[in-house]
Amino acid sequence: MIPGYAGRFLEVNLSTRRFKESTFDDEILKEFIGGRGLASKILWDRLGSKWETIDPLGPENMLLLLTGPLTGFFPGGRICVSGKSPQSNGVVGSTVGGELGVELRCAGYDGIIVIGASEKPVYLFIKDSDVEIRDASRIWGKDAKQTVQMLNEECRKLLKKRYPRYGEFKEPAKVYIGPAGENKVRTAVVAAKWTHAAGYGGYGAVMGSKNLKAVVVKGTGPLPEVTDMKKVKRLIRAVDRNAYDNPLWRRWGTGAGGYTVGAKQSSEPVRNWQDEWHDETSFSVNQFENRVWVKGCWADFGCPTNCLKIAVVKSGPFKGAITDNPDYELQAYLGPNLGLFTPEENVYMASLIDDLCLCGIQTGNVLGFAAELFQRRILTKEDLDGIDLKWGNAKAFGELAKKIAYRQGIGDILAEGTYRAAVKIGKMKKKDLLQYAVTSKGIAIGAHGIRSQKDYPHIISYACGVQGGDHTSTTALPIDGSGSEVWEIFNDSGVYCNFNSFGLPRNFRFDFYKAVTGVELTRDDWGKNKAMRILHMQRTLLLLGGPDLRWNPKIHDDNPSRFYEPLPSGPYKGKATDKESVREDVQKYYAEAGWDENGVPKPETLKRFGLQKMDKSLEKMRQ
Amino acid sequence: MTSKKEPIWIAREPTKCSGCRKCEIVCSLYHENRIWPEASRVRVFMLVPGADFPHLCAQCENYPCVEACPFKALSTSKKTGAVLVDAKKCTACGKCIDACPGKIPHLHPAKEQIVICDLCNGNPQCVKVCEEGGWNALTKVQRHGSAYKIHARTPDDISRDLAIKLYGEKAEELI
Description:
The complex is a heterodimer of chains A (about 625) and B (about 180).
Chain A: E1 9-13, E2 18-22, H1 26-32, H2 35-47, E3 63-66, E4 78-82, E5 94-97, H3 100-106, E6 111-115, E7 122-127, E8 130-135, H4 144-162, E9 173-176, H5 179-182, E10 190-192, E11 196-198, H6 203-209, E12 212-218, H7 229-244, H8 247-252, H9 257-263, H10 285-291, E13 293-298, E14 308-312, E15 322-323, H11 328-333, H12 343-356, H13 360-375, H14 394-405, H15 411-414, H16 418-429, E16 439-440, E17 443-444, H17 461-464, H18 485-494, H19 508-517, H20 523-544, H21 553-556, H22 579-593, H23 603-608, H24 615-622
Parallel strand pairs in A: 1-6, 7-12
Antiparallel strand pairs in A: 1-2, 3-4, 3-6, 4-5, 7-8, 9-12, 10-11, 13-14, 14-15, 16-17
Chain B: E1 8-12, H1 22-32, E2 43-45, E3 53-55, H2 64-68, E4 74-76, E5 83-85, H3 95-99, E6 106-107, E7 114-115, H4 125-132, E8 138-142, H5 155-167, H6 171-174
Antiparallel strand pairs in B: 1-8, 2-3, 4-5, 6-7
């Protein structure tokens, strides 16, 4: 067994209510590491041959909760959630911060594979090797804060009863869904700690489709044995010191971005990306810090950065709203993107989105899309059940968010996410509405635009990324260059917070991996071989897609049309993405990846990586 | 500066706790040479998100746990003031937990013995890591005549206080 792994995976069949433990060969773990890489491998092997017919919201889909060998060791604990995505119909490695990964490894498991679906609402309760499926009908329908409270109370009582001599039990770690996931909303998240979310991919809906309300874990063992603990300790300190050298990053987290990304870089979504610039100082970090932050540091396991803060609205119409910072993505998407420019409105929206367990990015995007249709009189007040969806009307956006989570009225269509909603409403209104949908492969684009070219994404980052609009996994040229997706695949497969790797030498992560596992991994071997294999698998499954939607690279390996419109204001006014350059770079990317001019992995590429199994399935796309 | 011979105390300021659990990491590394949150002598509770805090022995001036031990497995360190566990004598009966006003001790998850903060023989690792990160939720001070037992409170009580401080009247529904 490779050091750094607990060595066992838990498989749960919710249809038969059976469990089993499984293992993966060392060779597979060396090849795919964990998290996103291993998720791709599991889905490829088990669902690949029938991928196109599998309904992401049907019992045949899998829900994967996977750690990696670095989880708990590399500061900033996370867990990777995956499965067939109800947003892209491909595979997304969607990570969420918190202690679940650590608790799971301390319970002796590297991951959980959930198949089937329960007839009634249930949650999974794991205490070391004791695994049980418990009734969740009492908790079903509850929001995030109620769910956390009820699970803490119930599970701590249970632990106390079963282990009366132990003393006080800490809260077990958990991920859960809220009303949005229960109602199979495609923008629903797998949530943790009220405000944390695995958003990209829409796996909250997958949990909902399985009637799985939560996964709760208490592990009482140590993290797995490592190869060189002395070195691991030294590397942890190096991560810490790197963070401590950056006091403003620690103080503000990404919360400074709500103002600066718009004002300085012109790459922030404003009113559904009709602009990417604003100069609203009312939305600056000092306003958040002075008015709503009640706690300046909040962190997940082992994290030296504490980029999270606690925000509470203390007065006014939104009094009582609680969330974290919000972080930049939720600032942008539930702020300027909706024409909202005050901390209080932003905290109100983020708090509501947290409570409903919706994705702030995906939902902020679809709310902005709806508001633009309202602005253009394509959607009327009548269509919106009387909601006056004007830019800047926070209460109206809040009302619509609730309708989405509960699939009421127009909310039922918007609950399908921006892309699918654009197609549906477009048919109803007999108009091309995809021009207002800022998405890639069914996934709303993160809050970092490309028009000004002053932010990090490349012009093909979202067009070619295997996780669509995911801003945490953007690609670039060269394909193994510094801005490429291949390095994010490592973070998501080792499963730790990439924020804590900012500013560290590029090889650092591989040194850390070696200190934990004893396995030598070079940059080249990762960038040219192992990461590429995972990339090809994700690409192949994304192209196979189905059953409701399929992506045609000729059409869909492209930016949303909005990114070709000139920026209307600000210092980069007039700048737009050049379509011809995108076309050229997409072709360059294909060539570097070993994909044909249609963007389909070539037979020889698949063969080189041992992925011939899918060759036939892709054949029809090659013509 | 604290002189080495004087008893010390770990002052705690839970509102400064980020919930990073670095204290658990270094404590378990020091005592067990593993990262082992449940075997850590200091444990971070987060019964209410945001209201994270470190829970560790307060070294009450009357040491009710030491008094309550039927096997004389607990004693106090003259040097530091810490409660020391004699693993050979400890039967993990849990009487010290019952006696502790804060229900702070807990059983070792793998050994038949109780786990109580031993102040790392005067050089507490949790304090070092917390100060290094600038949080100062835990700091080392000299132990004189303060009322220390008031800090031995249950996780539920501390959580309630912190939640009210952070979230006001809304706290009741969150606990």
